[in-house]
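Quick one from the shared queue. A colleague (R.T.) flagged Ribosomal protein uS12 methylthiotransferase RimO as missing a structural entry in our internal table.

Convert sequence to structure tokens.
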Amino acid sequence: MHQNPPDLRPDLARARVPETRREGQPTIGMVSLGCPKALVDSERILTRLRAEGYAISADYQGADAVIVNTCGFLDSAKAESLDAIGEALRENGRVIVTGCLGAEPDYITGAHPKVLAVTGPHQYEQVLDAVHGAVPPRPDPFIDLLPASGVSLTPRHYSYLKISEGCNHKCKFCIIPDMRGRLVSRPAHAVVREAEKLVAAGVKELLVISQDTSAYGLDLRHAEERGHRAHITDLARDLGSLGAWVRLHYVYPYPHVRDLIPLMADGLVLPYLDIPFQHAHPEVLRRMARPAAAAKTLDEIAAWRAICPEITLRSTFIVGYPGETEAEFQTLLDWLDEAQLDRVGAFQYENVKGARANLLPDHVPDEVKQDRFERFMQKAQAISEAKLAAKVGTRLEVIVDEVDESGATCRTKADAPEIDGNLFIDQGFDGLKPGDIVTVKVDEAGEYDLWGRTD
């Protein structure tokens, strides 16, 4: 059962590709750390390697070399990335490093001088060059063909769909723009074409991701090409026409976000918004250099719920930001009481090398950060428990993620994979399989999860 806040990263993901390989075929392993955006990068790298004749190994021992796609957002994530690199070196010995932490090659080689190569985030060509140097390709043109749907690191019935890279914001606690650059949006027709291929291959849920989904297409001046306009509202409408669940992540609460809500009310996209509010006190937001003010967010939330009452709102917050006073933290708790968000996670502030927040005065002691984190999550848990209790006796549409001898693990439209709760079916699950979408009557509720049975 998931707990909140659960681990937000799909660590140690393994490719779902056929295990058989021809004699002498070069083989690569992959360890993917970090956020779903990094997972998409891993999938693209593996798809390119498969097209060049490489086999993909599900373990260290079966690989001629291992790629470790790292995370470098927080110091704790950097430490975890170094640990993963060390494990790959011990288990395999031939390791290529890429991803966000790759933007600091000296940091990596200082800890692990035996890595074969280090490349930065979304540097696909450099990763391929490093693989070619370590394990030369030996393609068989009669056997090695590009898989129609590419290599997936997620279950077959859902897939992440990255619509842009980079970010134009300058939040003081974040170094993502330094690592991944400014906003670069994909053309809308290319996004829609990829989504069409995924749905044709059996994907039932598309999880739209970027660093700032609301800003999609801004760098393209919202240009229209091949019948598709590069604007998040138009893109959401186009994706919603494909027949799959469409879930929007990392949506900043800009005014034009309200144009998405009618699409949710009409059933074109899921009534779910993942919005990184981060805090509620205006002075804390100012010190963070956040692009949206909290003063109007409660009004916006009320307007969204008026249009689409079933909307689920998920967000993350930072507690213990430099200079945060007890009064400012209390404002956050009061705001959460009023906002009644459905899915909430929190992080204790950490210094990150290169972030401007490191230089702010009045850093909060660790014991105070821990206390505020516990108080915040206690309130969030109580809100979640009450909201889920209200669903007992209702009928909900769910998507099946896993089925084993003890039951089926599913998600409602209010639950994103890996980060939200689950609905468990422990009776009458015979015949269910991953990817099925069924209607369930809710019998029981917990703090973050539901239990139910099929009609």
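Residues 1-18, 142-148 have pLDDT under 50 and may be disordered.
The two ends are 23 Å apart (CA to CA).
Added to the table.
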